[in-house]
Specification:
The structure is a homotrimer of 133-residue chains.
Chain A: E1 2-8, E2 14-17, H1 19-29, E3 34-39, E4 45-51, H2 55-68, H3 83-92, E5 95-101, E6 104-106, E7 111-117, E8 123-132
Antiparallel strand pairs in A: 1-8, 2-7, 3-5, 3-8, 4-7, 5-6
């Protein structure tokens, strides 16, 4: 079974911490041990893990990514004007796996799971699937 | 069982839409519900998801990636002259997971699955494995 | 069951080949056919696949990534001064899947699995989980 979540974003570019949402979906599935697959069914948003302690980290990441992939470039042809968002989405990726043991998501001390919005604000979907051992 | 597919590329850099190929491999496996793992056994090609509606998107992505990772750089030491392709391959990644429900690949409306060629033209391999619930 | 490995790094930025370590963990699990998930529980290190034949490739990759993501930037706010490492970690990713058949890790001829250190030297953890068919 795929749990289908909705995540509302508020800005064009934003990292939304979905760790609690995924943890809750996991608890409702009764998962004890296995692997969780997260999947973002969009082409201008992604899923990633990074630090959840200092909010400056995700702010620096968004700014850093925008320096790497400029919003405007003379060679962009895509008429919607969001080619940068498509590139960033592929750089971070659409799918991710997390380990589960004793019913708990196994994350490092400073790790949070983020939906990365690159062309918001929008209502985004996040799909969660647990595979038991 | 791993389904081993061949994908022929025609250019040095190219995004090849493999969605139909993966869908067919899935149908032949009789898969109903679970997770599909895609794996590219190369170091200068990758697997990614992006928009399949407007071909300008993948063109912009290839051009954008080439601006980020220059083909020539004074510090590249690797004698084959394809260090840019190795970097791009790691940025997009070698493996990906897709969800399956009711025998159908679960993708977003605009999502296509692409083998990303960065050092072609070549005959590339794409491995597909379905894990049932 | 999650196998929890320790990988010691010696430099600030380094690709450590963990292929043999993962292969050994797999052998001890008695795995025959399935999928291995690798997970790095850190926010300034990552997991990636690239060429294991010519060491110039990983050297070029590290140098290339440092050109893409500068170590110092006027807009970085994070006080630890390692925002570049956080960005690189998300670009390469925290999780990866490898296929297993006949008890053997299925890798391409030139592929090696690397823990990518971007803020070492440190003692890093690498988690390995095998899911049987």
């Amino acid at each position: 079974m795929v749990t289908r979540l909705i995540v509302a974003t508020q800005q064009r570019e934003q990292f939304i911490d979905v760790t609690a949402t995924v943890t809750e979906a996991l608890a409702q599935s009764g998962a004890r041990s296995g692997v969780v697959t997260l999947f973002v069914p969009h082409t201008t948003a992604a899923i990633t893990i990074n630090e959840n302690a200092d909010p400056d980290v995700t702010a620096d990441m968004l700014k850093g990514l925008s320096e790497i992939v400029p919003r405007a470039a003379s060679f962009y042809r895509h008429a919607e004007g969001n080619s940068d968002a498509h590139i960033k989405a592929s750089l971070l990726g659409s799918s991710m796996q997390l380990l589960v043991e004793d019913g708990k998501l196994q994350l490092g001390t400073w790790q949070g799971v983020y939906l990365a919005e690159f062309d918001g604000p929008r209502e985004r979907r996040l799909w969660v699937k647990f595979a038991s051992d």
